[in-house]
Amino acid sequence: MTEPVTHQDHPPPDEARETAADAWIWGFALLENYRTMYPQAIDPQDPRYVGGFGTFRHYSEPFTPENTDVVTPNNDTPYSWAWLDLRAEPWVVSVPEIDRYYVLPFHDLDTSYVGFVGARTTGPEAGDYLIAGPGWRGEVPPGITGVLRADTFLVGCLGRTYLAGPEDVAELRAVQEGYRLRSLSEFLDTAAPHPPEEPVWPTWREEDLANVEFFTLLDFLLQFFPPLEQDRELRARLAALGVRGTGEFEPSAFAPEVRHAVEQGIADARARLEAAKRDAVDSTGWFGTREEHGTDFLTRAVGVDKGLYGLPSAEAWYAGWAVDDQGNRPPDASKRAYTVHFAPGALPPARFFWSATMYRLPERLLTANPIDCYSIGDRTPGLVHDDDGGLTLYVAKGRPENPKQAANWLPAPDGPFTIAVRVYGPDSSVLEGSWTIPPLTVSGDSGLTA
């Protein structure tokens, strides 16, 4: 058993504060990931439970405001959730031939992507893909189409599959049911290895994000995350605080002045994250592979906070408005009505499709409205283009009286909101920054369109 860290073993308070701040930013993604994994894969009493590890749970029906599994949900691509435990052996994900957009993105414990199976990366053909954990050096069996190598022993997947509309649900469900997960031994029809010991999973508690128990949970999760070269310096500093990945960390071992310094470090980190979020308007750098993230853990934390499990920009580019054209932050439909005008030829350039989805703040969830419309995009029927070929969207809490405006109405909540623009398969002009979203323009007070 690892020897407990005593008071005299701890670094001085100023170092403890700096380490706590840096480690909170780095570890934020792990805890937010656990926040989702716990109800879905660990707690069978939770209605969000997907069935444990090694199984898909598909959502084929469009999302409504009652769905709260994940922030900023979308109805472009209903979800397929799965979690894998790679400690005993690899897993194999099999997909059929698919004639529509889809992506199965597998992510490590810290939300960095391991790899992608889908329309953009692997094409429409059927295939069997091996997902291996840290240190696996086994022989890749014949028939495997590709190999994804994870850096953590616990891996998640938030799959997306294109939905054309409510009438397409049956076809969507048929595609989703073609996704298959099997352990490697099941895939090969051989004897399964001895299962790993079941850990005592900590109960998720929301308040632990803001206190020293953050590091108790982080210490537990690090058991499933062997140190990487790029993280060794920070992991060494964490170890000096007693966070060694043993699952035995006790905040009570802190001397009072060190505990206070750690609390200050957490507050520093949270303030740093809030400042970084304030002016972030698109998803560039938020989501990606470990190579794409590099050591920019603050940008990764912004992405985790604004849209956990968002896709990398090459797959799907996200943008939105933190402020309207008059400087109001955040936009508020209880006080104002808005327009979004795309000039002729300046609609979002997408290989697949684009959408703009409304969310209420601060929850970042869909908002109820009288026409059950949560997004507008290039697949929305009945949109009316401007005389010059452009497109103007009308954002307000009440339906516009003008029929042309009503056809392009994106209902807003009676209060603050945000809109997420998603461009699936973005053109290079999006990725390079030469195409940007137009401003969110105040068009009058909220009563003008009621």
From TrEMBL:
Residues 54-182 form the DUF1254 domain. InterPro entries: DUF1214, DUF1214_C_sf, DUF1254, DUF1254_sf. It comes from the Bacteria. Residues 316-427 form the DUF1214 domain. This is DUF1254 domain-containing protein. It comes from Streptomyces durmitorensis.
